[in-house]
């Protein structure tokens, strides 16, 4: 029935904090080759290549690849504002992510409504989704690094949701199909398979349309992201190259 595709699409969207369809790159044309880790006294930007691969901002000091960069007063002021504005932006980005989790979980609930689940299965599904949503909300709130949502980390969150929900739905649908087959209603059994297949194949684009509701909230971030890009301009790392912690495209 390809049911795993439905749950995989949902879980991956959740794991990406609801920003898969309306991310900052699409809406604000903002990109960065760095991961960001926020500490009480520092902002740490890191990437595999090119140099500088590690940029540390904090307490009026700029360090790139282990070397402190000499800054004039104007540059120190701009980097202080950069740090202040970026820290202020983080709760707003998290708020979008939190809402994205809610939108995605609600989409799974509504999409599964077409599967004619029995009351017990429906109640258990709602319970598991609520538990997973609460966990993701907590993880988003506690997260201080974009590393938490990349690669294996994101896949772990996705697999957890899949592991919680997919067996439940598969069992319920399988039992419906068995009951239909045993009663001799092969057409109903085939319809169940088709229903689940159609739901799985169309879920991702429908979810992306639902996530359009996040667009105004993300657009409200764009002016502040643009300001961050402007504040970093003209400042070089220890290797003499522009920092380019954040890029704004067209």
UniProtKB/TrEMBL annotation:
Source organism: Dyella mobilis
Signal sequence interval, chain numbering: 1-21
UniProt keyword list: Signal
UniProt name for this protein: DUF2884 family protein
InterPro entries (UniProt xref): DUF2884
KW Signal (keyword) present: yes
Superkingdom: Bacteria
A Pfam cross-reference name: DUF2884
